[in-house]
Amino acid sequence: MPESLAVRRAETSTAITRVHEVLDAFAARDHNGDMLTAVRHFPAREAQWANFPAWANADLTAAYAAKGIRRLYTHQAEAIEAVHAGKNVVIVTPTASGKTLCYNLPVLNATLENSDCRALYLFPTKALAQDQLAELHDLNQRLENRFGIFTYDGDTPADARRSIREKGHIILTNPDMLHTGILPHHTRWTRLFENLRYIVLDELHTYRGVFGSHLCNVLRRLRRIARFYGRDPLFICCSATIANPGELASRLLETEVEVLNSNGAPAAEKTFVFYNPPVVNRALGIRRSYINESSRVAQEFLKHDLQTIIFANSRLQTEILLTYLQQANPQLPGKQETIRGYRGGYLPNERREIERGLRDGKIRGVVSTSALELGIDVGSLDTVVMAGYPGTIAATWQRAGRAGRRSGSSCAVLVASSSPLDQFIVRHPDYFFGNTPEHAFIQPDNLEILINHLKCAAFELPISPSDKFGDVDLPDLCARLAAAGFLHLTGENYHWTQEAYPADTISLRSVSSDNFVIIDVTGAPTVIGEVDFPSALVFLHEKAIYIHGGQQHHVEHLDFKERKAYVKRVDVNYYTDAVRYTQVRVLEIAATEQRAGKEASAHLHSHGDVLVRSQVVGFKKIKFFTHENVGDGKLELPENEMHTTAYWITLERPLLESLPFTVSERQSGMFGLLHALESVATLLLMCDRRDLGTAIGERPPATDCECASDVEAAQRAAPLQGTTENFDPSPLEDATSTNVREFFEPNLYLYDAYPGGIGFSEPLFRTHDLLVQKTRELIAACPCEQGCPSCVGPAGDLAPRAKEAALAILDRLCA
Amino acid sequence: MAAVADKFARLAALKPAQPMPARPAAIRTPGEDDTLGRLLGAGIATNHFGEHLAIRNWFSTPEFAEPACTTLELLSRTRDESVSCKTRAELEDPEKWLFLDTETTGLAGGTGTYAFLIGLAWWDAGGLQVEQFFMRDFAEEHSLLQELSRRLKERPVLVTFNGKSFDWPLLENRFTMTRSIAVPKLAAHLDLLHPARALWKLRLGSVRLVELERHVLDAPRLGWQRDNDVSSALIPQFYFDYLRGGPVEPLAAVVRHNQMDLRGLAALFGKINALLSQQTDAAVEIESLDLFGLSRFFQRRGENDRAHSACTQALEIGLPAEFRPRACRALAQMAKRRGEHARAAEIWLEIVADANDGIHACEQLAIYYEHRYKDFYRAAEFAQLALAKLRRQRNSSRDPNFTARCIRLEQKFLHRLARLQHQMKALGGIACSFTLRRRIIGGEPIRTASK
Description:
The structure holds two protein chains of two kinds.
Chain A: H1 3-12, H2 15-29, E1 36-42, E2 49-50, H3 58-66, E3 72-73, H4 74-84, E4 89-92, H5 99-113, E5 118-122, H6 126-142, E6 149-151, H7 158-167, E7 170-173, H8 175-182, H9 190-194, E8 196-201, H10 209-228, E9 234-239, H11 245-253, E10 258-260, E11 269-275, E12 279-281, E13 286-287, H12 290-303, E14 308-311, H13 315-328, E15 339-342, H14 348-359, E16 365-368, E17 383-387, H15 393-400, E18 409-415, H16 420-427, H17 429-434, H18 447-460, H19 474-483, E19 487-490, E20 493-496, E21 516-520, E22 526-531, H20 533-539, E23 545-548, E24 551-559, E25 564-569, E26 574-594, E27 603-623, E28 629-634, E29 640-651, H21 653-657, H22 663-685, E30 692-698, H23 711-721, H24 729-735, H25 739-742, E31 746-752, H26 761-766, H27 768-781, H28 802-814
Parallel strand pairs in A: 4-9, 4-10, 5-7, 5-8, 6-7, 8-9, 11-18, 14-16, 14-17, 15-16, 17-18, 21-25
Antiparallel strand pairs in A: 1-11, 2-3, 12-13, 19-20, 21-22, 23-24, 24-25, 26-27, 27-28, 27-29, 29-31, 30-31
Chain B: H1 2-9, H2 32-40, E1 43-47, E2 50-59, H3 69-76, H4 85-92, E3 97-104, E4 115-124, E5 127-134, H5 141-154, E6 157-160, H6 163-178, E7 188-191, H7 193-204, H8 209-215, H9 219-222, H10 235-243, H11 249-277, H12 288-300, H13 304-317, H14 324-337, H15 341-351, H16 358-373, H17 376-396, H18 400-427, H19 435-441
Helix pairs in contact in B: 3-11, 7-12, 8-11, 12-13, 13-14, 14-15, 15-16, 16-17, 17-18, 17-19
């Protein structure tokens, strides 16, 4: 077709026909039918309307009317009625369904009725607060600027802060600022706290895992201070669709929360496509690069003049995709660039400009990290391309929601990478489309986190016997803090007795603030990054090749005491992989369950407290592309001990005896199984792969935990308790050469990779059956022959038949 | 259970920040408080919030200094219309003055920092009455604050050293935290840190109270000695140790330290009062550097005439070589503001050779010749001289920030030069523009500008 004709056609045909043209083209190329693993159509949905409530202030409804909002969606009306009735609510709606009105309307209404009324808005990022500020300013202008509405964060100039504290009716901030900047100085904020009526928590689903556990404690402190000033504020929360919004909200707020999850907003017709890049080497399970494929898919849409957003999972991938697409769509002379990138690290003005460009259609394509997944308003786009599975069902729907907000039709394409998670999702579309999204878990009573926040709480106000902090045993913990010199008991109250300011050293985004700084000493020393403590041992040991921003660095020296790593830029054809031994000792079993069934399926699953000892003992040098081992080295690094929680499966002797494999095949099978279990567990838990650790160890001689202290047994079992990150079967073979070892009963551990545990173990224990079943599906459906990164791990790392052995074990576990 | 004990033992959050003293828990015998009281010379004060220790001492030095009107004007802007008659009356009445200095559990601020010792002082019987309130534990804070509130009602003019940014906001926090004692209203708050900084920072580098005592107040002559003075950095830990049953002796030293600070504060007021109220021409015995400091202080307060005369005087008496160009620069600036441009140019020419202030002088002269005199040739010469100086500085420096600053300045001069050359072209010919430059660099005497 001549170029000009194509353009004319693109202009005349509707978005629907153009989307279908592209999809047809994909289908035509999919000869074997294994490229497009799912094509699902979702019909359009009509809006359901309701009127503004009679109690709403006339000025406010007039201001909304002037913005073009004369009616409410039913879910908005429902939400504001619930807030009006004095309930804590969590509103669950997809992107772009007008959720901000659900909190802005009640808050502004209350402030119009009583100008003393104050509200605090919390957003997980500064950018989101800025976005909401713009929306509120618009309303405020239509109401003659009767309100003081300000953001208060690290960027707020010092000279503006005093007036914000006095005049702000609505303060938009983030949990980190609340933690370090507001709560420890609450006496400066008396105007706010004495009149605090509403607290808005937007993007509630982001507060899970460590961050959520911290936030829960920050909210405990916030409510304690509000009580001090005689207030008991209402909470209005908004969340993306997750499986347990009500549970998450009530755990975070530690009170009853009403869940509102109907949706009256209209939706466009949508097509959702799963795209698996074609296999290039079936034996090794290697597929075509998903980055290249994503770029190709996006380019198809762009060529058909469909405005497209491309999501990548890292900053680096964002930049690579942007380069590809800009090359394919060169900037016309005198015209604005039509393809832009969007990620953290871009300046606020640039971001605003891109958002505008997307809304008015001048920008045709944008490559973004998760930055655009949250509620920033960029208008409606035609198509979404996801380069790699975002990691959770919830995030995938959030991203897909970026397309077709108001337009006639839209399309979302998920391009799978070769990681197990991605492969599982694209090969089991029903799992994705048929399931509720993940659960979000928090563990606010993780002792490490809890005690740090108790310190902050004591700094803010002395802790009195009548104080509440969740339902933790305050007297006991305070006594321990006093014994360590942090608090002092006077009369009945515990007072802070340190010069230091506790909030400063506690970061909400991780458990420990004990980070290693990476210093590039190639030229003048410059700090190029920071890595947390456990990762430092693995990635920054001496002689490691550390890759930062695409550049290889050789680690010259690791200064353990000073927490510094000195690196030099190099260009070599290998990377390094740390060999880590991990030992797990069960300290206390919280629950254990035996699956009744045939003898051959004898196994237990349990969860409880464990002690994880890990040590990086060496490293391997691995050549790029060929993955040959071109050398190794020994390392003497300190052992790292962590008390945490774990879930584990114990394979019992009858099960093992029933397996028709050699000892080493069986061992390999277990490691392969664990690899796959971990992938599926992260999927079920809505957590990051780094949040979980794995290990195999011998089941203690008796199930009682005290036996673990049997030194002799521990020593005897030591060679078996080791597991390396990249499994090398040879030492195990030596260790298992005797008959005694042949049928040791192994525990397959999945532990929380945070000191104290972050609450994953118990949910894993509960979903044991599903976990095992999904893992079996993952391995069974993988087309590779002897294992690949998408299922049990790369074939070269395991003994032959490992995949078969893993499947055989899973068959028995499912029986 | 062993595992539970283990669990706590491993917590990073429970690791003591400093080694805990290996003594039994704080069980104090009833007689022990008396030891502290005796040691401090304290009595027990009681009000309806409870009790605390109170320590009273009278000192014959420093002697009472009648605050002069000019001093008050300069320190509190009493001429300002917004200051009410009542406030003015209270300010002028030394009976209403209260010197204050606190010892705290830290410098971090925020709601978890306590003032465990509040030191107050006022003029009495020709000398200084010092009263200190000490809380033996946190429960006594309310009664301590109540007492402070009462004193401030009687004497609502607060005089402190760095109190505006430290002591008073901290005490405001403490009052707010009680939810029962209102934050006292102050008639005025004179913080002597800012005038002290303007006056003596140049000479002393540091204006810590101890330094001022030694070098400005001439403490040894007054017979003041800070024997075995405690280091401020150790004070919070002394108090924490005491709370947990540790020794009381260090606290006696803290109380003495606080007394010395209060006397130093009062004496400092006397010194500043004397400096500010004196007729400058009678100030023969004032050191020239202090005169220059005084001029800087006057300038900040918008007292241009007095600033000018103090500066001139300082230069006449003679300043150390390293301060002379800076004083000249200030003097020229003042002349420029008064519209005496020729006089200013004269002074700039004097310091054109200086390493630090020379570039500034060149810039000012370039502006002067360009705009006042329309002598573009000379203006261009000074711009070029400045460029040469900048390049030399840049080449000899390794500090990247400094280099960047030099480059920015160079850009500015290049821009000016381009404009000047454009203007010269418009006038025709740039013939003689480079001859003079050589002369200046060669260090030959320069013609002073004359009309």
